[in-house]
C-alpha cells in the first residue's frame, strides 16, 4: 500500500457525524448500514471497483476515475472487487459551495447524482495530487493549500461535465426534509436569510425545521448559515484581493463588525490575521 495509515467504515458511527476536510487511504469493507454525512465525498480507486447501494439502486464505481457525490445521500458499500485500498476525501458542503462551480454540476450533486470523470486519462495526475494531499491534510494551514488544489481539480472536472446527462443519475428518488432544508440554505445563505424563510420554503414550522436540522447535524440553522458564510469568506481570502468589507457583504453579513466577530468565533483570529498566517505558510512552503 501507499500509505502507513488506513481507515475503514466504523459500523458504530453516528448518522450525520461530520468527517470535516480530509484526505485518507481507506480499506474497503462491506458496510452493515448506510453512511450519511454533510460533506462532498471524493473517491479514487487505483484498481478494482466498488459497488454502492443508494436508495435501492446499485452503482459501481470503476478504478482510475475520480468520483464525486454528496455524502448526505445514504450510501453503503455492498460489494467490491480487487480493491486493496482506495482514497477518500471529504469536503464540508459549506466550503465546497464557496467555489461557485457551474450550476448544473452542483445541482446534479445535490439531487443525488454520482459524478465521475469520463475517462481515465487523468489517473496519473490524480494519484500524484492525492499523494500530496495525504501529506498535507493534517498540517494546519497546509491543509488550506490542499483545499485550493482540490478546488482547482474539481473545477476542471466540473467544466468537463457541464451537460445534464453526465454522471450516474438516481432517477425517481424523493428528496428528504433534511436534504430540502440543506439545499435551500446552501442556495440562499448569502442573502438576508432567516429561519422563517426556510420553514416557508420547505413547508414546515420554523421551530420544527430547526429541531430536525439540529437533531441531524448537532447545530442550529443559524449556526450552519454562519458556517457557510465563513467558508465563503475563507475562499475569498485565499483566492482574491477583495477588501474585508466587500467580502463581508458578499458573504451575507450586514456589517464588518458582525463578520469579524463571527469569523473570530469560528477561527480564533480575525480575517486579516487569517490571511496573514496563510501568506506566511505559503512563503515557507516555497
Widest sheet, order of strands:
1-2-8-3-6-9
- Poorly predicted regions: none
**How much strand?**
15-25%
The ordered string of helix (H) and strand (E) elements is: EEEEEEEEHHEHHHHHHHHH
Number of domains: 2
**Number of DSSP helical runs:** 11
Radius of gyration: 19 Å
pLDDT averaged over residues: 87
Global geometry? globular
In CATH, the homologous superfamily of the largest domain goes by the name Regulatory protein AraC
The main pleated sheet reads as: 6 strands, mixed
Number of strands: 9
| CATH class descriptor name of the largest domain | Mainly Beta
Q: Helicity range of the residues?
A: 40-55%
- SS class: alpha+beta
- Named CATH topology of the largest domain: Jelly Rolls
Question: In the CATH classification, which architecture of the largest domain applies?
Answer: Sandwich
Q: What is the terminal-to-terminal distance?
A: 29 Å
Structure explained in plain terms:
The chain has 286 residues and is of the alpha+beta class. The protein has two domains: 6-160, Regulatory protein AraC (Jelly Rolls); 177-285, Arc Repressor Mutant, subunit A (Orthogonal Bundle). Helices cover 46% and strands 15% of the residues. Strands 1-2-8-3-6-9 form a six-stranded mixed beta sheet. It has a three-stranded antiparallel beta sheet with strand order 5-4-7, with no helix packed on it. Strand 4 (49-54) and strand 5 form a beta hairpin. Helix 5 crosses helix 6 (195-202). The radius of gyration is 19 Å and the shape is globular. The protein starts with 5 loop residues before the first strand and ends with a helix.
Amino acid at each position: 500500500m501507499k500509505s502507513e495509515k488506513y481507515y475503514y467504515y466504523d459500523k458504530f458511527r453516528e448518522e450525520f457525524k461530520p468527517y470535516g476536510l480530509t484526505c485518507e487511504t481507506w480499506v474497503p469493507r462491506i458496510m452493515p448500514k448506510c453512511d450519511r454525512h454533510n460533506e462532498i465525498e471524493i473517491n479514487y480507486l487505483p484498481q478494482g471497483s466498488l459497488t454502492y447501494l443508494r436508495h435501492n439502486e446499485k452503482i459501481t464505481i470503476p478504478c482510475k476515475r475520480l468520483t464525486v457525490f454528496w455524502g448526505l445521500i445514504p450510501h453503503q458499500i455492498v460489494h467490491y472487487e480487487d480493491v486493496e485500498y482506495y482514497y477518500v476525501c471529504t469536503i464540508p458542503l459549506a466550503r465546497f459551495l464557496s467555489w461557485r462551480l457551474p450550476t448544473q454540476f452542483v445541482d446534479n450533486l445535490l439531487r443525488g447524482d454520482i459524478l465521475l470523470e469520463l475517462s481515465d486519462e487523468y489517473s496519473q495526475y490524480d494519484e500524484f495530487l492525492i499523494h500530496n494531499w495525504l501529506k498535507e491534510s493534517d498540517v494546519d494551514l497546509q491543509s488550506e493549500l490542499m483545499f485550493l488544489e482540490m478546488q482547482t481539480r474539481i473545477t476542471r472536472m466540473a467544466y468537463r461535465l457541464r451537460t445534464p446527462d453526465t454522471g450516474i443519475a438516481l432517477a425517481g428518488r424523493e428528496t428528504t426534509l433534511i436534504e430540502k432544508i440543506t439545499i435551500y440554505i446552501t442556495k440562499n445563505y448569502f442573502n438576508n436569510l432567516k429561519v422563517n424563510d426556510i420553514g416557508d420554503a420547505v413547508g414546515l414550522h420554523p421551530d420544527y425545521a430547526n429541531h430536525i436540522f439540529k437533531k441531524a447535524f448537532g447545530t442550529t440553522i443559524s449556526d450552519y448559515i454562519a458556517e457557510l458564510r465563513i467558508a465563503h469568506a475563507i475562499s475569498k481570502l485565499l483566492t482574491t484581493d477583495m477588501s474585508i468589507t466587500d467580502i463581508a457583504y458578499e458573504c451575507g453579513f450586514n456589517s464588518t463588525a458582525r463578520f469579524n466577530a463571527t469569523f473570530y468565533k469560528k477561527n480564533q483570529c480575525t480575517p486579516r490575521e487569517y490571511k496573514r498566517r496563510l501568506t506566511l505558510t505559503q512563503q515557507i512552503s516555497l
